[in-house]
Known about the structure:
Number of helices: 7
CATH topology: Jelly Rolls
Radius of gyration: 18 Å
Number of strands: 13
Shape: globular
CATH architecture: Sandwich
Largest sheet: 9 strands, antiparallel
Helix content: 25-40%
Number of domains: 1
Amino acid sequence: MESALVAHLLGVVRSAPLRSAPFAHLYFEGVFPEDFYAALLAAIPGPDRFEPLYHKDALRPDGTTTRSTFTLEPRALAALPLPARRTLDACREAVGGAALRDALLGRYEDVLRARFPGEHHALTLDGTVKLQRDEPGYRIGIHPDTSDKVVLLQLYLAPDDSHPEMGTALYRRDGADFAKVDTLPFRRNSGYSFARTEESWHGVEPTSALRYSLTLNYRLRRQRLRRGVRKRLLRQVTRWMRRVLRAS
């Protein structure tokens, strides 16, 4: 029997209009019930719980990073106070569950059929729910996302609607140039998703305030090995950068 939280999320995903420009995407409002959203904001761990992410676009000139991440997994959650642990665990189960996954994939069936002809119903996917912490100055350049991604979900955890410009921007490519078509506003209890294609160009312009969000990327399991090697290399680089920063 699905929980009230899952039922609410499914209603949001199924009722959001599917937008086609510049590529297929959904924008959500009222993602969580208001009482749960308030509890979710209160449950966000302190900055010391987040792991720095050394993506090239997120780096400052001194080598520090503007983005860090907290994976909603049992081991990490176990270290949090009980109220926060219960809220984030409920969030992980609902957002990362099969019901929401199937609802999202169903909204993009035409896109997935075109990308994976003859096998779009048989894809084996992995997904991990994460909190993202973006400090002022965070940005990411225009990109379509890596080929192992199938569907991306990002839910904004904004305390209010004072910085709509800090949302993800969508672009249309015209030869070597890009034109911004829309910005999915960074507003409280909102978010978006899209199916990854060669034309799903998006990015984030430099932010002016602290930005939290909840992300879930559905990835192809058959590319797990390659992704695992890349992540191990990234962890080694991260450790090296930490040692350099501590020594400086």
